[in-house]
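stuck on this:

***
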Amino acid sequence: MWKRNDDPERISTFADPLLRASIAGTTTIGDARLTDVLTGYQLLAGMDYRLREPVALGVRFRWVDFSEFRSEPLPWNQLRSHESSVGRGETILYRMTTDASRFWGVSLNLKYRF
């Protein structure tokens, strides 16, 4: 689900100020399966500290980095649930993209050996 900006001046879809004002604040709902192949890597590091013979305390660090997501071009229903070709004379294709995704994590664990 997407929502248009409430400020018509920030909308660049149309040059006509009345058309921009009419679509300001409206929403679009899309229902499609997006696919892409992402490349990525992760770095792992950690250590265990033996507290007693059967007990160890461990800490792990994880850093993960994925490339950007870029879907295939798809036709979407535009605002007010009409087809993409309405008002433009041709079907508009949209490509969904994201920036690269990164995250990190830290875990603490306690190990007991039987």
Notes: The first helix runs from residue 17 to 23. The chain has one helix and seven strands. The radius of gyration is 25 Å.
